[in-house]
Records
---
Amino acid sequence: MGQESSFSSNALGEIGLGWDFSKIGDRYMLDIKKATSKDFQDLARLISGDIAWSRYGIDYEAALLLIKSAEDEFYIARNDQETIGFCALRLTGVGNIGAYMRMILVSESYRNQGIGKKLLEYIWDLVIKHVPNLFLICSTDNLRAQKFYERQGFKRVGTLDNLVITDHDEILYWKTGGPLR
């Protein structure tokens, strides 16, 4: 598990490790790999600059503290040298039955181009090697994200009232590759 995974695509859509990035477009060189502490400032910048996270009162310093203190593994998506997205994952987030994806974020200027989908596919391929289920929560206000998760095969499990902040609810989502046994 300490092994660093990475895959990339060049502008012609040629790929490594069986990934097809041709739908992302010809202007990106996408690379997804496990983050290191050197990437934490980029991740904090993405979180603090995102409108969806502002409702939770997370500025740059709070985001950096959150990342540094997390038990999650972070996976970053880069275009050339620019970090354009990431995912925070806890493989044992739901005991031995499933992983928990705490965050996924793609920079606003790179959205709707298939990058979030590729990042989620990468995470799913990683998860399914260890546990059969992936869970996440999504704000009830974030309709765009809800549609995205449902298109990626996640099922809505239920609503968690006041989970993170008062008077704001979250939706629990689940994707499965089959039963535990």
---
Amino acid sequence: MTVVTVLPRRPLTVDDLDAMPDDGHRYELIDGTLIVSPAPLLRHQLVHSRLMHLLLNAAPADLQVLSAPTDIVLADDTVVQPDLLVAPLAQIVGRKLMEPPLLAVEILSPSSRLIDLNLKRARYERAGVPSYWVVDPDELRLVAWRLSEGVYVDVADVAPDETWRAADPFEVVVTPRDLAAGAG
């Protein structure tokens, strides 16, 4: 049986997103516009799993590392699902995070590059997400920003073979090439 969802001809809200079918697609909402993402490439998944492992091993007991699909409600018309996030355990209640996480991480894909580097970065900044990282699995680079007086400032632009010691939201050491080691 095919299910057809008819979208209203107005900016969408969190309630509209909740009414979307549970069909395995990744649905996000940015400024009332529905964003549907395809399944990530294998290289993306490899980088994702290795970075998640690093973060999980370094996270203190009062913080949790979560993976997409985890909805973060940034506004009534903006619900995002970063590839990885770090949030206080006390914030993890119900189906969605209703407060900004301490860290949002996006791993670039051909279909998400512009959204992750522009739209999502601006929405995370506006919502007050303290740290934002973007990993490029093709270039093997990691770029990090930290919120300072409401604006993201550059913290790191890590080349493939460089090692970066992140301080926020906790100390963790990342070498971009190691995130995709062995991948073709």
---
Amino acid sequence: MKHFERKNVRASIQPNIGLETGIRLSVIEMLNLLLADETVLSFKTQHAKSRPSGEEGSDFQLLYSSHYKKIRTISQKIRERIQILGGMQIFNTEKLISSARLDGKPNGLYNIINILADHEAFIRFLRDDAQKCSEIFDDQGTYAMLISILRVHEKIAWILRSKISQEAV
């Protein structure tokens, strides 16, 4: 009986799922960019939750807490999709924030209006990326996931707009 030494080498078997390598790499790059944007949203939402400004009290803390959990769940789905496509997600938080399309620089202005603006910008990014997945990359799996994420962010933005309207009255 032969004994095989187990090495700490991780075999990388690339998926054979009907997407060419170049397409998969482009989608993985796109998903890492979305993950970076989600990281910025997560950071800003968590910061707003822990430090509500004057007019934003406990109601906003509960709202931000709920949104933070949704954003973290979305981030996990994006990470999983990157792995499904045979890619590696960016793990370094600083690198994620610096590569995001949303401004990740801490400026202390994590109020509801700024967070709403970031969600709306992210929704526009998602629309463009979903369209690329469908029309250019022919990756219907990623397309469906992005549409699902888009709908969550649209709902978050709608709730934030309604909160702003209520506060204005």
